[in-house]
């Protein structure tokens, strides 16, 4: 099989995961990397044997077909535009962007250039999420009527990189929400509106004992740093299929007892695993059961398989079919996430301005490293 040569822009926290996971897919060949801090890309060159270079040098290489954009969210749209203008397909780490207008420009440019855009998360292609979708598609809970999606905790407030997570472009919704919203669209199809109330409870949080190199010139250990985003978001998403899903995303919770996602149907209920993972468990309850029953996973890719979305995109480039972790899906997910604060500010239901096709389910029986042609 002809490999797809890939360049990685952004060699920060998440990059090791991509460098390692991409090796699981024979169709992907990472050949170059770059970072605004050259020492980072040089380190990856030493670790993985991938040539380190500048962004401009990477984008100028004729052999690179796909650029994996692993930069901070605030520049995702900018790097995607640079990639498309260089004549290459763009695949970004989540979220697709932090501003709906900038995200729309990426989609418009891709269409104009005849190029593809893709975006994480691709965890919805893992064995747990694909099995949950199959249970719905095969009618095990009847018609989906309602459900819950909850991602609650104190957030990474003591991490060395903590100020990033409480600043514009992050917060619980844009940081963790992409996994949950993408999982819901994969199972239920596109949404139509959001009604929500959101709030920032604290103006400042406090760092822990370590401060990352990014913030050492600004903060010392145990310094306070500002919170500039809403940290507790709660609302209801209405889906076009008729289902209504109650969502809570919070960095203001010390402990809770909620399952990540539950879907309630006309003939039963489904517990869906953490969408920030690739595995299970998936649990089913139907009338007549005494308790939840765990469902055997029908698919592989249950371990950390980040890069599966880029690999699927590579297969799609060869055959011409749509790729699953595509720009329309990611743009719609961004629209849903941004709608929570928009609805809260309006004090009313917010009608979404985007839509997408429900991504095609994976076929059963795929071998490791294999995806559909």
Can you describe this structure?
This protein is of the alpha/beta class and 373 residues long. Helix content is 30%, strand content 23%. It is built from ten helices and 17 strands. The protein has a nine-stranded mixed beta sheet with strand order 16-15-14-13-7-12-11-8-17. 48% of the residues are buried.
The CATH class of the largest domain is Alpha Beta
Total of domains: 2
The biggest sheet amounts to: 9 strands, mixed
Strand content bin: 15-25%
The CATH topology annotation of the largest domain reads as Dihydrodipicolinate Reductase, domain 2
N- to C-terminal distance = 11 Å
Shape: globular
What is the CA-atom radius of gyration, in angstroms?
Answer: 20 Å
Query: Can you tell me the CATH architecture of the largest domain?
Result: 2-Layer Sandwich
Mean pLDDT: 97
Q: What is the element string, with H for helices and E for strands?
A: EHEHEHEHEHEHEHHEEEEEEEEEHHE
What can be said about this structure in brief?
This protein has 373 residues and is α/β, with parallel strands linked by helices. It has helices spanning 15-21, 38-48, 55-60, 76-85, 100-113, 127-137, 162-165, 171-188, 308-319, 327-346, and strands at residues 4-9, 28-34, 51-52, 66-69, 89-92, 117-119, 144-152, 191-199, 204-206, 224-226, 232-239, 244-250, 261-265, 268-272, 282-285, 293-295, 350-351. Helix 4 (76-85) links the parallel strand 4 and strand 5 (89-92).
Question: Top keywords for this entry?
Answer:
six-stranded parallel sheet; Dihydrodipicolinate Reductase, domain 2; 373 residues; 30% helix; 10 helices
């Amino acid at each position: 099989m002809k490999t797809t040569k890939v360049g990685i822009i952004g060699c920060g926290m998440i990059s090791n995961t991509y460098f390692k996971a991409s090796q699981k897919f024979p169709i992907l060949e990472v050949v170059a990397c770059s970072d605004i801090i050259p020492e980072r890309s040089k380190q990856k060159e030493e670790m993985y044997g991938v040539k380190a270079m500048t962004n401009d040098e990477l984008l100028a290489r004729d052999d690179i077909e796909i650029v994996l954009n692993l930069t901070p969210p605030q520049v995702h749209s900018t790097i995607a535009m640079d990639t498309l203008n260089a004549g290459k397909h763009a695949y970004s780490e989540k979220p697709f962007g932090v501003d709906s207008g900038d995200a729309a420009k990426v989609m418009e440019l891709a269409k104009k250039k005849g190029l593809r855009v893709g975006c994480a998360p691709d965890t919805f292609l893992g064995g747990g999420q694909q099995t949950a979708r199959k249970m719905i598609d095969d009618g095990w809970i009847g018609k989906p009527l309602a459900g819950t999606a909850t991602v609650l905790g104190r957030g990474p407030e003591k991490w060395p990189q903590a100020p990033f997570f409480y600043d514009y472009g992050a917060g619980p919704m844009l940081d963790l929400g992409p996994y949950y919203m993408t999982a819901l669209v994969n199972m239920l199809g596109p949404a139509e509106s959001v009604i929500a109330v959101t709030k920032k409870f604290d103006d400042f949080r406090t760092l822990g004992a370590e401060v990352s190199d990014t913030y050492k010139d600004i903060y010392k250990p145990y310094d306070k740093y500002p919170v500039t985003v809403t940290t507790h978001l709660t609302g209801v998403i209405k889906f076009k299929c008729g289902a209504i899903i109650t969502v809570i995303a919070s960095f203001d919770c010390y402990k809770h007892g909620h399952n990540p996602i539950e879907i309630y149907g006309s003939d039963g209920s489904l517990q869906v695993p953490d969408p920030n993972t690739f595995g299970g468990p998936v649990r089913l309850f139907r009338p007549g059961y005494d308790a939840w029953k765990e469902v055997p996973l029908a698919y592989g890719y249950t371990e950390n398989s980040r890069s599966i979305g880029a690999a699927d995109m590579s297969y799609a480039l060869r055959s011409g079919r749509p790729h699953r972790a595509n720009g329309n899906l990611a743009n719609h997910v961004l629209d849903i996430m941004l709608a929570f604060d928009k609805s809260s500010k309006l004090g009313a239901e917010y009608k979404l301005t985007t839509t997408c096709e429900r991504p095609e389910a994976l076929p059963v029986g795929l071998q490791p490293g294999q995806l559909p042609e």
